[in-house]
What does this fold into?
Amino acid sequence: MFAKINTDLTISDGFIKEGRQSWHFVFCLSCFCVRKGDKMARLMDLLLGLAKWPAALLAVLSLPALVQALHYLQLGNLRFFAFAGGAFLYLALKIIAAARSNISMQILAHELTHTFFALLTFHKVVHIHLNMDESGGAMGFKGKGNWLITIAPYFFPLFLFFMMLAVTFFSSKIPDSLMVNGVFGYFFAYHLESILVQIHGEQPDFQEVGFPFCWLFLPGANLFACSAVLAFNNGGWLSVEKYVTAVCKLNMRNITEIMSYFIG
It folds into this structure.
């Protein structure tokens, strides 16, 4: 599936005089952009392939620091209680209505997360498909792909991420109130439910990436992603930066202590 060339593209008469030359220029420009994108996608796939097992090792080694850094989130405030209230509201509505998970929305979020990380790693997305019977979905892209595209839906909170961006870029139009924190908590609970529903032993994406890698990488990745959302709810991106800094410092201290223990 190929994108259509925009025939409304205008080029100055001084630069191209004949229509045939114009079409030739647009065609060459399009081919250049596609080749450039393909090269970047292959480069990203190569780099992520090399970083796969180091990323899994880092996720495992970072677990103690990720837990220790939760102390720096300062959760005993009204923002967090509003956040927790939104999460409990989601849970209460699920229980009262005796409703099962919104499978269609989960499938859509799942495929959109695949799509988001495919675009981040310079892959051209060619289609997104959702099965009408809610049995699943699929998305396709050009290129080989990488493990990050495959397992991103199992730790990355896509909806929450874009909500964080919306609050950041439209802060003048979005009121700074506890209601916003409650909405974050509501979708945080939705994200956790989606993760719990999707993670199981028969998941095809896990089979593609490899179960050992998933069990090593996903716990730390999920803890980091969820903690980053909690930090943002508490104090925006500055709080996220402080949390990440605390994790890095604690990681260095823990690794140093482990090395000194074995070295003596």
About this structure: The first strand starts at residue 125 and ends at 130. The helical segments are 19-68, 78-96, 103-120, 147-151, 158-169, 178-198, 204-209, 211-263. The CA atoms of residues 192 and 226 lie 9 Å apart. DSSP finds eight helices and two strands in the chain.
